[in-house]
């Protein structure tokens, strides 16, 4: 069964002025291309019956790249919302305080990791099996989905994610990203 491009959980103009509709259109074009690439590679194979997350875990090479990017992008969109969530609440706030000190320090560590990545990839807030939170960077199509940690929040660091609005200024893009983070979605991803 082929995969469909998931619908955005908000209108394509809803993240303005932080992320423009033009930027989202370009970004969605890349997401569509990853989904189409996955479908072309799995058509007529036993892999066509797998859910996308299992396909990511079981694939390699160019199929992994396309499947991981399709999964990463869908995950990315679900972690955003217009005007964002004010601040993390309840257990998420407690875990952020325990592992980073406070939200400001989490953002500093996340941004430092994102700005330190040479080239393309992703920066993630993850929860390890022992419930500790950490910031993790993956290169290219890498994803924590293939490891032991649970991804909670992901930020796309490929140039197509920010070039339209911010050219080469990844720091400005990160400032905009924090304004549209959906902390409620992040909290729902926590493991017990």
Notes on the structure:
- Destroys radicals which are normally produced within the cells and which are toxic to biological systems.
- It comes from Stenotrophomonas oahuensis.
- The chain is mostly helical.
- The chain folds into two domains: 21-78, Fe,Mn superoxide dismutase (SOD) domain (Helix Hairpins, Orthogonal Bundle); 90-188, minor pseudopilin epsh fold (3-Layer(bab) Sandwich).
- Helix content is 49%, strand content 11%.
- It is built from eight helices and three strands, in the order αααααβββααα.
- The chain has helices at residues 21-42, 52-58, 61-78, 90-100, 103-116, 159-166, 170-178, 183-188, and strands spanning 121-127, 133-139, 150-156.
- Strands 2-1-3 form a three-stranded antiparallel β-sheet.
- A hairpin with a 5-residue loop joins strand 1 (121-127) and strand 2.
- The longest helix has 22 residues, at 21-42.
- It is globular.
- The mean pLDDT is 95.
How many DSSP-defined strands?
3
| Uncertain residue segments | none
CATH superfamily of the largest domain: Iron/manganese superoxide dismutase, C-terminal domain
Q: Which sequence of strands runs across the widest sheet? A: 2-1-3
Main beta-sheet annotation: 3 strands, antiparallel
The first-to-last residue Cα distance is: 32 Å
**Averaged pLDDT:** 95
**Individual helix count:** 8
**N to C succession of SSEs:** HHHHHEEEHHH
Secondary-structure-derived class: mainly alpha
Any guess at the CATH architecture of the largest domain?
A: 3-Layer(bab) Sandwich
Rg over C-alpha atoms, rounded to the nearest angstrom: 16 Å
Shape: globular
User: How many domains, as an integer?
Assistant: 2
Indicate the CATH class of the largest domain. Answer: Alpha Beta
If you consult CATH, what is the topology of the largest domain?
Answer: minor pseudopilin epsh fold
Helix content: 40-55%
Multimeric state: single chain
């Amino acid at each position: 069964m082929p995969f469909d491009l998931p619908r955005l959980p908000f209108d394509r103009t809803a993240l303005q002025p932080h992320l423009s509709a033009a930027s989202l259109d370009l970004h969605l074009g890349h997401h569509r291309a990853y989904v189409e690439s996955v479908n072309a590679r799995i058509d007529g194979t036993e892999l066509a019956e797998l859910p996308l997350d299992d396909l990511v875990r079981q694939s390699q090479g160019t199929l992994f790249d396309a499947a991981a990017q399709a999964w990463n992008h869908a995950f990315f969109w679900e972690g955003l919302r217009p005007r964002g969530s004010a601040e993390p609440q309840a257990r998420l706030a407690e875990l952020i305080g325990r592992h980073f000190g406070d939200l400001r320090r989490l953002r500093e560590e996340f941004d430092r990791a994102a700005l330190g990545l040479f080239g393309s990839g992703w920066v993630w807030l993850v929860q390890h099996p022992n419930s500790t939170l950490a910031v993790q960077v993956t290169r290219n199509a890498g994803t924590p989905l293939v490891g032991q940690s649970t991804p909670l929040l992901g930020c796309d660091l490929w140039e197509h994610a920010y070039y339209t609005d911010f050219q080469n200024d990844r720091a400005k893009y990160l400032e905009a990203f924090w304004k549209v983070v959906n902390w409620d979605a992040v909290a729902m991803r926590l493991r017990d």
